[in-house]
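_Full entry_
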Amino acid sequence: MSAGSVRAAVTAGRSLRPVRKVRKLTHDARGLPTPHVDIVVRDTHPPRLAEHYHTTLADDLLYMTYKHESGGRPPPRAIRHMYDPADPYVKLRHNPLIGGAQRGRAQAPPTAADNVVRLERIQIHTMAKDALASRQNLLGPLMALRALSGATERGGGRRGADGVQVVRGVKNVGGWVRPGLPLGAKVDLRGPALYAFLGTLTEFVLPRLREFPGLLLPPASASLATPAGVSGVVSFGLPPEAMGLFPQIEVNLDAYPKSYGMHIHFITNATGAGAQARARQLLSGFQIPFARR
């Protein structure tokens, strides 16, 4: 076969290859291009406090909160109702439990390595009373929480990310709060953002906060069998001047019309009796101070 015939055969073979078509990008309602695949921003390295928890703090908490139980637990005692539920004459009557609510008497789960107390999320909540007069006054808290958390709706490709949410009234209160009226803002932090905020709080804000003795502990004689004692949630508030101590806001403090106070809720997986005490032990391992009244 001559060189010309070989060249002709190769050219003919190339012409039979399908031409690759370039797919056009679709655009969303805001005019931004939408890629054909889901882009997810994943973590390149674990946060410092997360690594501290998994390598040191979890083992210490397991040792401090361990309670040895020989054999299985006895079955819980059946709680009777005030009236017989099978009685047709009291079917529509309010039938409470004898002894009141049993939530504060719930037992803690058995101590094991897979249920060591850990942080699930941090919720930051702030209220702006001037938002009742004008909804434009709610822009300041929204900007502040977005700067503190860096959270946006479906940020990082995570469909479960809610971002900063507006808190609205649920019922009428004193004639000045109505259902559906915007009152403040809140944001939930999970994953790396949780540990980043916790590190900023313990290293930059609390040490520079004047006259801050620490999170107040209840008296030693206080009962642990309360709804708050079995919730596993530790909450405290920060004054308005603490907002300017966060580096994300301190660098551009003049952009915010005023400072706002905030409530911070540390939500853990602890349940049962003594859940809040175990949650405080976890937070103390993250260098959050506590003080007795």
Remarks:
- The two ends are 100 Å apart (CA to CA).
- The chain has a mean pLDDT of 83.
- Residues 48-64 form the longest helix (17 residues).
